[in-house]
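User: I'm curious whether this sequence folds into something compact or stays loose and floppy. Could you predict its structure so I can see for myself?
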Amino acid sequence: MPYRIGAIALLVLTLLLAWTLGGWVGYREVEQESLEESFRYRQLVANELNRYLPIPELMAEHPLLEEALRQPDNPELILLANEEMQRMATIVGSSDVYLMDTSGLTIAANNYQQNDSFVGRNFSFRPYFSEALATGDSAVYFALGLMSGVRGLYFSHPIRGTEGKVLGVIAVKVLVHELESQWHRPASLTEAEMVVLDPSGISFLASKSRWLYRDFQPDAEMGATERQRYPNRELAPIQFEPLGRPWGLSEQSSKIRILGDGHKGDYLSVRTELPRLDWTLQVMVSTQPVVWMRLAFVGGGLAVFFGGLLTWLYLRERYRREAELALRGEQLERSVAERTVDLERSNEKLLEEIQERERTQTELRETQQELIQAAKLAVLGQMSAGLNHEMNQPLTAIQTYARNSRKFLDKGATEMVDANLQEIVSLCDKMSELTRQFKVFARKSEGPPSVVDLCQPMDAALKIIKAQTSSGGVEIHWHRPEQPVLCHGDLIRIEQVMVNLLANAVQAVEDREQPRISIDIKDRGEHWQCVVRDNGSGLPGNSEQIFEPFFTTKSVKQGLGLGLSISRQIVDALGGRLTGNNRTDGPGAEFVLTLKKRETME
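Assistant: Here's the prediction. I'll summarize afterward.
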């Protein structure tokens, strides 16, 4: 709860500080822009005054004006003065130029031909006339024209004779609408207004037409002279409410609220004195940008507050979690110390189990190899009768040839003896080849797989199978490729697989009238396929069951059902595949041995 109260208090303080600081920055920006605009307009007025102020003094040096003042009753001289006044007005771009004697009576003017001509009118009541006579120097005055009612600046200068005596005054009127047209609002101030006030607070220049000739100082007293300056004007006061000077601003600035007049709003008023004249420039800028600046600062303050709050909450939570982690670390160290002993014991047991499993795997591999070797010997045992037949026939023939050779020796028939000995050698070679083939088949496999020509183990397996008596009537078609069939494998293990497949095929076709076995090798892209087909009775419905250990459809005398199971294990170990299924083109089964291709012999 104390944290929440503190956070709320800090939030309120942040908002108040942001609102105050935003107001200060906003008012300072508005004041600065107003001062810059006041300086610009002040320079504009100074330039206009400097442009026209020397002109009456120069005009007063013209000798024709002195002569006209000395001879006001000379019509020809007055006409020349009027025409000179016209040329002067055209040259300087002024509205009116006229000449007055010491009594204020106008004796010549540029508008002498117009109905509202100044000629014959007395302007002694105008301050620009009396001030020029009193000071003997140039004078400047602002007023509305009595005849035209148009606002203008009056520049005057006394005309002296050769003896230095003042003979009269020349006056030049310049329209001020150009000064008003030069007012441009700053791009950043969307609601800025301007008024130029005389000493009595009457606006004679304004950016809003309804603020022209209005009294901006209702409390100030207005004399007859001020009334004469604005003939036939109501000079109604502007209703506004002073709101004081915002904090941090200069004495030139104040905040006001305009009331009535079809408009209501708060303005920052900045007053600046204009040069050489008793005029005051008042720039009024809407305070709406200050509100937006304050809202921006409030938004920034909220962002800073919540950023700080989130940072504080994060650090607080971080310190709490660090303390909690430190406590848990101590507990964990104690738990680790306690569990280390248990882990060491478990590791010892695990090492013992690993060693035991390694021994078991070694024994399993040895048992598998022994099982494969036993399967080979079992096959050899099953084929022993055929081997006996294959050996007995050559032995009987050798015995017969030997007995005949003795008789031929007794008779001296050496040619017949030589022929018999050649037959005996041929029969011995045949028996030696058969015996060697069986010795190779019975030998254990050595070393890792390598590159093998698939035709070689197939040739060796056919020699062993053909040695059996049961294969005597079987027609075996071995479509041997002309080129080497290089595959990834092992010569002895592939030969064992082929012997098993061919032995099963021979047994499957024993009861057929025309037993037939075909052997083909096919190219399957990255693999070689060796297909062994027979025309026997085929396989049971579930062909995968035949690869299970001890599954057999034969009698006990024909086998134990391990041949296909061991053959698949051998092929899987070589990275190949062995499948079996019934033929689709006729009776019988087919077994497909798939092995990876190899490019060169190793």
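Summary: The two ends are 85 Å apart (CA to CA). The longest strand covers residues 151-160.
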